[in-house]
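protien #1 (seq + structre)
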Amino acid sequence: MAENNYHDEVAKQNILKMREVIETLPSFCRTYFLGIQEQTSARTRLAYAYDLRVFFEYLHNVNPVCSKMEITEFQLDILEQITREDIEEYLNYISYYVKDDKEITNDERGKARKLSALRSLYNYFYQSEKITKNPTALVRTPKLHEKEIIRLEPNEVATLLDQVEAGEKLTPKEQVYHEKTKIRDVALLTLLLGTGIRVSECVGIDLKDLDFEVNGIRILRKGGKEAIVYFGDEVEDALLDYLDERDHMIPCTGHEDALFLSLQMKRLSVRSVEKLVKKYASRVTTLKKITPHKLRSTYGTSLYQETGDIYLVADVLGHKDVNTTRKHYSAQDDLRRRSAANVVKLREH
C-alpha cells in the first residue's frame, strides 16, 4: 500500500487526537471547532483544544457552581458568567499548578497562547451573537520579552559536521549506531544547516521531491503552501552520498517514498531528528541548547550577514510577514550599524 502524503498523514493523526479531546470538552465546543475549521489547520485546532481543556478544568476545580457538574455538561451560558477578573485569575493560576502529581508552569508565552485560544472561542460565539459579552477583549495579553537568538557560530557549524562524520566523542554504544547512520546524519544536518528548512518540512521530503537539475527540493510550508527550496554544492554532495546508500535500503510498507529512513526502515520522525541534533550538538557546545530550530536560526543569520537582504531571508525561510524575520534578526542590524561607524573617514591620519 502506497504511503499517504506525510503532511496529510500528520493532519489525520491530529484530527483523531482532536476527536478524543473534544469528548472531554463542553458540547458547545464542537460547534466552535466546526465553525473555525476552514480558517485553521488541524494542528492549530488541536492546540486550541488542549488549551481550552486547561481552562475548563480550572473552572471545574475552583468555581463552586462548575464543580457540581462534569465539564462535558457545561452549557454555553457559562461563558456569560465569566468576568475579566476570572480570566486574569486563571492566567495567574496557570503560572504554576499541579496536575496528576506533575508540576506545570506557563511563562509569558504559554499564558499568551492560552489567552489566544480563549479569545478565539469567545470571538466565535460573540460574533455569532450567541453570547452578549466578551471579557477576553478586556484582558491584556502578557508582555512578551524578546528571546535571544541562539545559534551556532561558523566554527561551531564546521565542528558539528566534523563530529557527525567522525563520531569521536560519542559513547561506545552510540558509535555502533553511528556507523550505520553516519552518511544519513551528515546529509540530514547538512540539509538543515544549508537551507534553513523546518524539521517538519525536512522529514516530510519524499524522494520525488528532489531535483538535482536545479538543485531544488519541493517542501510543504506551514499553512499548506508548497515551495521550492534551493541548495548549494555542499548539500548536493551530502544528499548524493546518502542517496547511494538509500538505493540499497528496503523500506517498510507505506514508507517507500520517504527520503530519510530510520534504522527500522520507516520515515524518520520529528522527534527522532530532535534527538539526533541534540546528541551531536551536545558534543560541540554545552553552553547552548541546540535544536533543529536553532540550526534554522543559524542559517538565517548567516544568510542575512552575507546578503543584508531581510526580504530574501524572509522568503527563503518561509516567513509570511517580513516583520517576523526583522524581529529575529534585528540584532544583526545593530552589528551592521556599528560596523558602519568607522567606514567613513573624516580626515587622513
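ok now protien #2
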Amino acid sequence: MVHAIRRTLFLLTALVATSATGGSGEERLPPSSEGSFSIAVIPDTQAYRGRGAKATPLSLAPVTNAIFDAHTQWIVDNLDAQRIVFVSHVGDIVDRNEPEQWAVARQAMDRLHGRVPYAIALGNHDLKASGDAALFQKHFPAERFVGVPWYGGTPSAGLDARYGNNANSFQLFSAGGLDFVMLHLECNAPDPVLQWADKVLAEHASRRAIVASHMNLGPLAQPKKPDDYFAAPKGRMQWKKVHGAAGNTPQQMWDKCFRRHANVFLILSGDQSRTQALRQVSQNDAGRPVHEVLSDYMATTGSGDCWMRICRFLPAENRIDVFTIDSRTGQLCPGTKLVPQRDAHQFSLPYRMSGA
C-alpha cells in the first residue's frame, strides 16, 4: 500500500512537470522542493569525436565531446535550482586512454571545480589492462583537492602507486541534516583497495555510505556472443575486465567489502551500455536494503540523446526520486529503443532518512 502511494505521488509529480510544458507531451524535470537535495550522476562519457576517437578513426579534427560538455554545463546551470550537493562520474570518462581525450575531459570537469563536490570512479577505458592509471592521475591528481574540506583522501602508505593519487578516493559531505561518506573505486578494485575501503567505511560508520564503482550490474556471466550482452541473465556481474588475476569481480567486491557495512545503502555504476538501465535491491549483512543502480546510455548517443541521472533525496518522505534527463533539452527520458519502459529511467527508491 505504501509503495503504491509513493508511486502515485511520483507519477503525479511527473504529470505536473508535463503540464508545465503546455501539453507538449515532453516531460521535464520538476522543480526541487524545500528540504530536498540532489546528487547528479554522469554516466559513461565515451562520445568523443575528432582525431583518434573510436567513432571517427579517420578524422584529423580536434578532439571534442559535446555530450560531456552538455552534462557539466547543465549541472552548473542548475546547481541552485536543483539543489545539487554532489556530482559523481561512474567511469569510462574517456573512450581511449590518450592525452587528447583526457585534456577534453579535464576541461569538462573543470566547470564543476570549486563550485560543487565531485569525484570519478575509474572505468576500464580509463585504465590500462594492468590497472595503470597514470593519465588519469596526471589530469585529476589528489593534489588538485588539497585543502578542499569535503575531500577525504586516497590510498597511500604501503599500497601500489597505481591505486593512489585519486585513482580511488572518498568524500565527506552533508545535506538535509544528513551526513554522508562516498567512495569512488576503480573498476575491479584489487584486494588492497578493498581493504582500504573497509577502513574508510568502518571509520565513518556513523555516516550514510554511497559507493560508486564503474562495473557492478550487467550480464551475470561474461558474454560469449554479442546477443549475450542483451539477452543473457543479468544482475551483479561475476566477471571482470582489468587488473588481471589481482582484480575483483563486482560479486567479489560485494562479498569482500560492501555487504559487510551496515551504512552502505546505495551503489552506483555504469559500464554496460547494452543494458543501459538496471536496478536491484540486495540485503547487506545487517539485514538492511542496498539499492544497486546502473546507468550507461552510450548506446543511444547516435540518436542525439544526452541522458544523465539526477537522484533527488526527499528526507521528509523517506524517498529518493531518480530522474533520467537529456542535459541538452531538460526532457525526461520516456524510454529508449533498448529499454522502452519509462519506469526503468524514472523511478523512486524507498530509503529511511527521517522518523523512527
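The chain has one domain: 34-350.
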